[in-house]
Write the structure tokens for this entry.
Amino acid sequence: MKIKILVAAHKQFPMPTDSELYLPILVGSTYNYKPEIDFQRDDIGENISAKNPNYNELTAIYWAWKNLSDVDAVGLVHYRRLFSHGGTRSLNNVVNRDDVESLLENTDVIVPKKRHYYIESNYTHYIHAHHALPLEKTRSVLEEKYPDYVSSFDMQMKKHSAHMFNMFIMKKMYFDQYCEWLFSVLKDLESRIDISEYSTQEARVFGYVSELLLDVWMDANHIQYREMQWQQMGDRKLVLKAFNFLKRKFSPSSEKQSHF
């Protein structure tokens, strides 16, 4: 089985040693490319590299969809967040080809273990960190273009856990189907929201929304999946993210909450 797991990065960083399995990809290469970074660029071939400030790691997923053909499965992880055996936070503990092939023998999609929000729903967690309007407009897109997905969307918004980070490994057929749907939804969403006044952080909105759409797609299509452990390479960033989330959560918000 030929498997490619893209490792999204925006700068030079240590990578897993199995270059047959792992493919480091420089996201936003339109802006970030430097000759000394010997990663696959996401601005080669058919691409949306220029959308990276708004689409995050999705520019790597799009590149793989349009440019990787001779593969049986495609995955995406991050330079600091990878599927792992657990234990020491080390590249020596990342999953290998045998691990992936073994799981894909009995399932179609591999996702990271769920992230749980015990005191919040997926929806309230999102709007405490980001603008609510993009999620409302996403539902409108589904109502008009993909009505069979609306019940799955509503259910996912009410849940208290989700498979996050846009991390996965999929058999190629399912990867193509997912990308066809995902980028269609996001293209329509782009036309319905004005992000010109969003902060640099909030302008990454399409990447944020897409994190919640993976479970919607899997549920609506009755996709068989298996969960896998993942690890953050380095703790400082996790602590900072947790602090920033709590700061946002308990700050006054002008956003009006919806029915989710």
